[in-house]
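Re: fe (iii) ion structure - here you go.
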Amino acid sequence: MKSPATKQPPANPPSAPPAAGFADLHLHTLFSDGTFTPEELAGHGARLGLTAMALTDHDTVEGCPRMALACQALGIEFISGAELTAEMEGSELHILGYCLDLESPELQTELRKFQAVRQNRIYEMVARLNRLNIPLRAESVFALANCRSPGRPHVGRALVQAGLCSSLEEAFDRFLKKNRPAWVPKFKISALNAMSLIHQAGGLVVMAHPGLNQSDEMIPALVEQGLDGIECFHSRHTPAMSAYYLEIAARHDMLVTGGSDCHGYSKGKPLIGGSKLPGIYFDKLKERRRSAAGAAAPRPPSP
Ligand code: AMP
Ligand code: FE
Ligand code: FE
Ligand code: ZN
C-alpha cells in the first residue's frame, strides 16, 4: 500500500472532469454543398462515436436548428457555425464562425447578401457554359441544389446529371476550376469584416484549413484583429502541417479546432470522422466562449 507521502493527486479532480472523446467541427449539409441532411450527418457522427459536432455550411446557418435537435437526441454536443469565403491582401481564406447567435439581425442580413451573390453567380456560370454550347439550364442547377446557398459543386453535379460531363472531376477540370472557361470569381468579404460580423453575432472566429490557402503570413495581423483560433486538424492537412499550425496556435495563444470538412457524397467518400479534434480542445473553445460571453454581458446594477 502506498504511504500518504507518495500518494499522487487524482489525475482528474472532480472540479475538472476529463475531456473525453472526439469532435468534428467542420461539416457541410445539403443546406449548402453537402449531400447529407443534418439528421443523416448527426447519425453518422453517432455511429463514429463523436461526442461533439459543429455545422459549418457555406454562407448559411439554416441547418443549425435541425442539427442541434438531431444531435441532442443522440447525446452529441452541438455548436452552431458557418464558413465564409474571405480575402486579405488579395489572398483567399476561409473563415469559420462558431457559437453564433442564429437570430443576430446583422448576421442574417449579411448571409442573405452572400446567398444572393451565390445565386447570381449560378446564372453567370450557366451563361458562360451556354456560350460554349453546353446546353445546361440554370433551373436544373437550382432544382438540384434546392438551397439558398448554391455553388460550383451544384453546377458540376447538374452537368453530370444532364449527361454533359461524365464526372464531377471532369466538370471542374474542364469548366469550373479557377481560370477555366465557366469559372466566375466569387464575392469575398474582407477578412476583417468577416471577423467583426462573427464577433458581433457573439461567435468565435477560426481560420479554416490554413494548409490549403496562402494565408500564413496574415496570421499575426489577424490575431491583432481578434482571430480566436486556427483549424489545425483537417482532412487535407498532413500530420506535419497539423504540428506546424499547433505550434502557431500555441505561440499566439489561439484556440485549436479541427474537422473533416465532410461534404457527404459530393466529393466521393464521406470524410466525416476522418479528422478528429481531441475533446480537450473542444472544452477550451467552450471555455473561451463562456469567458467572452461573460465579458460582453452587462454588469449587474450596483447595490
Ligand atoms: P464555390 O464556393 O461555389 O466556389 O465552390 C467551392 C466548393 O467546391 C468547395 O466546397 C470545394 O470543396 C468544391 N470544390 C473545389 N474544387 C473542386 C474540385 N476540383 N472537385 C470537386 N469539388 C471541388
Ligand atoms: Fe464546400
Ligand atoms: Fe473551406
Ligand atoms: Zn468547408
